[in-house]
Structures are given as C-alpha cells and as structure tokens.
Amino acid sequence: MENILICDDDRDIVSALKIYLSGQGYGLYEAYTGAQALEMVRAHDIHLVLMDIMMPELDGISATSRLRQECNIPIILLTAKSEDTDKVLGLDVGADDYITKPFNPVEVLARVKSQLRRYTTLGGMERRPDHIVIGGVDLDDAGKSVTVDGEAVSLTPTEFAILRLLMQNPGKVFSSSSIYAHVSGGYALSAEASVAVHIRHLREKIEITPSEPRYIKVVWGQGYKFEVMK
Question: Is a pLDDT exceeding 80 seen at residue 88?
C-alpha cells in the first residue's frame, strides 16, 4: 500500500484531498506546515507528498528543498494560479509536478497515480511487503535472502539489516548513528567506525567494483544511502 502525505495549512483543502484520494487503497497522512511535513516523512513510510507552497513556519518550497536532501519520493506542489514564479522555483529545487487550485478531482488522482507509477516502476524499484528489488539487487525479507544479478550472496544478520534499511528507503540518507541505532537498538561512540566496516563488507558482496559502488553511496559528512537505479 502506498502512503500519501497531504500538507496544507488550510484544513478544508486537506479534507477535500483526502476525499478525492479515499477509496484508492492509499494510506493517507496529513500535515499543516512544512515543518510538520518533514517530521511525518521522517517518521512514516511515505511514498508521495502533496505540498502547499504558502504555509507558516516553513513554506512548501523550503520544505521541498529539505526533503530532496533526504529522499527521492515524488512531491507534487499545490499552487494558486498567481504563483507561477513559485511553481518554477519549486520544480528547480526538486518538486516533480504541481496542481493548480481550485482542484479538479480527476486531475488530482491522475497526477498522483502517474507519479507513484514513475516512482515504483520507472525508478527501478519494486516494492512488496517482504520483497524489494532495486536494480539488480533482490532482497527477500521473509526468506532472509539476497541475490545480486541473479546470484545469491551470503550476508551476516547485521549486514542484512543494514541493507534492508537502506533498500526500504531508497535515496534517503542515513547517518552512521541512525544506522547503528536501527540495527543494534542502541548508541555507541564507535558507531561510525562500526557501520563503516559493515558498509565495506556489504559493498564487497553486492558491488561489482566496491571502490566505485553502484548501489551503496556515501554522502560525505552525512551518511549513506541506497541509490535509486535510473
């Protein structure tokens, strides 16, 4: 099931969009400021964001820019007809599309479906509850197995947990401390060194050339992410 976050400071608009999207099998979440939107995306498995431009605390343009530093999920801006400059700026900072108010329910649903289809299919990612395929990497969580380009690879439980975390959130950057906390349930001063070792071992097992990885990328000063294959 895909989860959609609707973010607008006008609660009537949020309610209307929820009505348009209800009955489609989506999980629907709501936020009323850009800051709340960032918190929701970090806390939940969100697959698409409908983001208003003009909001208090943190506007939609700034929120979109920050989200793009963390993940690649589709972002559709909600704009007024007079906000042409903001539409261009939003697309420049990473938004995927925009919908102009007042909304046409048919257009809203069509654009949402189009962006989700691009994200799950054209982006090279196939998502099922216990099975994720990105590029040539196939992770079966139920069977606790991983294949790369059709060849089985043997991972330790910690390596498997790290790979699963990264593949469940393609494009999202995780710091060493957050990765360590996820796989160990705690915190350690040596988290960065420990995670670096596990990442090196993972690259040796799933990358053709570990020194030039296709999948597990480092974002200097921030952490690691699993690259979305184009």
Answer: no
CA angle 71, 75, 77 (to 5 degrees): 145
- DSSP result, 111-133: HHHHHHHIIIIITSEEEETTEEE
Tell me: cis bond preceding 210? Omega within 30 of 0 counts: no
Instruction: Give the span between the Cα atoms of 163 and 201, in whole angstroms.
Output: 11
Is residue 124 scored above 80 in pLDDT? no
Task: For the full predicted model, state whether its pTM sits above 0.90.
Answer: no
Cα–Cα distance, 89 to 83 (Å, whole number):
10
User: Rounded distance, CA 189 to CA 191, Å?
Assistant: 6
Domains annotated for the chain, with CATH where assigned, are 3-122 (3.40.50.2300), 126-226 (1.10.10.10)
Q: Phi first, then psi: what are they for 67, rounded to 5°?
A: -60, -35
Helices (H), the chain: 11-21, 34-43, 60-68, 84-92, 105-117, 157-168, 176-184, 191-206
CA distances from 166 to 1, 118, 158 (A): 19, 20, 12
Which of helix, strand or coil describes residue 140? strand
- Numbers of helices and strands, H then E, in the chain: 8, 12
